[in-house]
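Hey, sorry to bother you again with one of my protein questions. There's a protein on my desk that I can't quite get my head around. No rush at all, and the record is pasted right below.
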Amino acid sequence: MNNDLLFKKLAKIAIPSPLFKPSEQDLLDFEQTNQVSLPNDFREFLLRWGGLESVEDYGNNEESYLIYPLKHKKFSEISHIIDCTITFEGMVEDYNQYGLPKFCLPFYINDIGEIFIYLKPDVNGEIYFVQNNFGYIRSSETDFIKNCEFDDACKLFDPQNNVIPYYFTKLANSFTDFIQQLVFIDGENFEEVYNECFLANKPLDISRLIQYELPENYSSHN
């Protein structure tokens, strides 16, 4: 896998974390403690960027979002807004938290669930979202969760044998693939398009969004 694709895309949509950047020894300690192996692209991302920070004050309106559009509407979600600083230090603190299955390393958490990288051998590096808040659940989905509690779903989760309970959604085969699908957009335009697509019960229409690219050497302090 060509990691240049990862960093070219990152440079267009976000900035490196301004906080703690792990060393190679930090990553080795995490791997040895938890008996896992970090995928090459994710490892290089952590060493070079330390994590990432989304840009929220760019464009004509000085309003922007970093979003992950979802291909299939589930639990009334058609996209995720990535709106926090992601750091390895935070990931380590969250590992084995939230009742997630073993080998799940969350790298983004919001009020409805977590996005994590799955570190189990043989399926190492796949990216998933798991939802654990259902304030806006559709009536047609109630049976999917009332017949299988969240804790039970986490115990059943086994992508290696194609067992992925409804709570879980696979987003990408790798961290690089996940980053490639992120879109950096105009926040004002996003609200209009999102609401229209949501009410029509359709996936987010990316073609209608105003998209940005950060200029070289952009700084959050500009």
